[in-house]
Design a protein that fits this description.
14 strands, binds adenosine-5'-triphosphate, globular, binds magnesium ion, Carbamate kinase, single chain, 36% helix, alpha/beta, four-stranded mixed β-sheet
Length: 255
């Protein structure tokens, strides 16, 4: 099983990812998609005059921000991805981490507000869709766990959600499509491979910052269980197909 995280930042650019997803499905490769949507959320927050702030690549989420996050991720972005895959002859069904509930979560750090840390993954809804021949397309929301959760929805970073789901589903491959060529050094050169230790050094020195931090942290977690963790350029035509065929650039994270 292949878990693909589609970065919101690459959505809408001449995207061949959907064609690749349909082609993989037709070849019988089980694929699960988790998507982001950071750029679209920021646009919608702007339209509403809500300012947005990030701490270490994670969006500080108060209640009005959460409402927009839920509407944009589980509504707009998720539906657009599902619509594109289905219109190309694929079979996809959208859900969010709240469905099932696939992702049970707790508050990550009070400073971030309604941002979730995944405490449990219930894989059943995803497995059912896979078994029925669908590509599950997952919006990264979590349901606050426990009796005192009271139905609170939490914003989970898409990279974090993707890693947790990849581990729970015992994925063979974890691929993060983003809007850069891979993890870059300070001169902009892409690393072919990085160990967890090397990548941590890049974070500590500030060379890897912002949205790259949760992405690398997701890979650190994934590589403990998933054989292959890759950060690749989703802007490149047929990046996903190339990935499955073992060609193309990007950065491999290894233990
Ligand atoms: N060392 C680095 N190498 C590459 N990119 C880096 C580095 N440090 C920081 N970045 C930033 O990380 C960004 C990618 O993360 P970002 O969260 O913006 O996108 P995404 O995760 O693909 O999309 P989304 O958050 O919508 O899911 C790059 O656009 C780049 O600006
Ligand atoms: Mg991101």
């Amino acid at each position: 099983m292949l878990l693909v995280k589609i970065g919101g930042s690459t959505l809408g650019s001449q995207d061949t990812t959907f064609e690749d997803l349909v082609a993989l499905q037709k070849q019988g490769v089980p694929v699960v998609v988790v998507h982001g949507g950071g750029a679209v959320i920021t646009d919608w927050l702007k339209k509403q005059g809500v300012a947005t702030r990030f701490v270490n690549g994670r969006r500080v989420t108060d209640e009005p921000t959460l409402a927009t996050v839920v509407a944009v991720l589980a509504g707009l972005v998720n539906s657009e991805i599902v619509a594109k895959v289905n219109s190309l002859g694929g079979k996809a069904v959208g859900l969010s981490g709240v469905d099932g509930p696939l992702l049970e979560a707790g508050i990550r750090e009070p400073e971030l507000g309604l941002v979730g840390e995944v405490v449990k993954v219930n894989t059943r809804p995803v497995e059912m869709l896979l078994a029925a021949g669908y590509i599950p397309v997952i919006a990264p929301l979590g349901l606050m766990s426990g009796a005192d959760g009271k139905g609170q929805i939490l914003n989970v970073n898409a990279d974090t959600a993707a890693a947790e789901i990849a581990i729970a589903l015992k994925a063979e491959s974890f691929v993060l499509l983003t809007d850069v060529a891979g993890v870059m050094d300070k001169s902009g050169k892409v690393f072919d491979a990085l160990t967890v230790h090397e990548a941590n050094t890049l974070i500590a020195s500030g060379v890897a910052s912002g949205g790259m931090i949760p992405k690398l942290e997701a890979c650190f977690k994934a590589v403990e269980r998933v054989p292959r963790a890759r950060i690749i350029d989703g802007r490149q035509a047929h990046a996903l197909r190339g990935e499955v065929e073992g060609v193309g650039g990007g950065t491999t994270i290894t233990q």
